[in-house]
Amino acid sequence: MNKKKWMAGGLIVMALAGGIYYFKSGPKTLTPSDFEMTAVDVGRISKEVTASGKIQPINTVAVGTQVSGIVEKVLADYNDEVEKGQLLAMLDTSVLVQNTKDTKARLDLANAKMKVAELNHQRYQKLFKDKLIAKATLEEAEVELASAEAEVLSAEASYAKAQREFNYASIVSPVSGTVISKEIEQGQTVASSFQTPTLFQIAEDLSKMQIEASIAEADIGMIVPKMPVTFTVDAYPNDVFNGMIKQIRLSPTEEQNVVMYTVVIEVDNSSRKLLPGMTAFVNVQIQELKDALRLPTTALQFKPNAEVRQFMDKQMFQLDSDQSIVYRLENGRVVPVVIRRGLSDTSYVQVLEGLKAGDRVIGEFIQKSGKRR
Length: 373
Fold this sequence. Notes:
Strand content: 35-45%
Helix content: 25-40%
Number of strands: 20
Oligomer: single chain
Low-confidence stretches: 1-6, 8-13, 15-26, 369-373
Strand order of the largest sheet: 2-11-15-13-12-16
Mean pLDDT: 86
CATH topology of the domain at 49-58 and 207-289: Elongation Factor Tu (Ef-tu), domain 3
């Protein structure tokens, strides 16, 4: 009997101890201090697409040469303003001069031969008419005349080619603009045997530039020509520059399994602050609301864990594509609220239905180490 009483007493003590432990450490209710709370307010929401790209002149012309030779003079340098037709460099022309003289002599000789052939042909025609020579002799004279005429045409082509090559030794600018690259120095040998070497690069007008920005396929549907953009560059971190979308190129590229499209942005560079090759960080504003009822996007990311679900009633919701669930704290209970979303950006989402300004919702549950909440 004493043993049974002892066991019963032990069970009572254990039950009391468990109750005390549960009362002290077990879940009772939740308070705002258990969460990071966030509030619904009224403010700006801006839907934006960001990208980056290089600033380049709208039209850059590569100036080369079609003949080989030693550079005799270089008359233009980096950053020089040049006019169309201006002499930029000269190649050594000594070999080209000799080639021109040689082809001119060949042309003169061919003309002389043709004149002799013409005279012989005229003479044989008269003799044949007087029946003093056979027809075969006249035909031979006709062939010699035709051959002489062809030789003249060939000599004329060679002479014209030699003259063009002589002219090519003078490197002139095909456009008016600014020299942004110079690839030759005096005394350098230029070889054009296999491809035309680039000697200068000329930007036609640096007061107008363009940005070639890469935009992902998920965002390209929101981009249209003539849409205004803003951008910054590292050289002027406090300045915001403006531009306008000129073109969406249809040929895609792939970067790390993401399909990207090149968007060309026109930029006014009248200040000449922007230099070719600068990296532009582009911001395309798709839509803006200045007085929207908004909620931080972190509230939509909160999902109750097992501890928090102890303080929730089980409910099932069927949501539309523009609806989400957020959670409020009411009298120690976590209450789900269905909201209808509108415009969103990286920080805020517009609330169309379900909440009003000043309402507070749960942003994140605070888990204190070693204690159940």
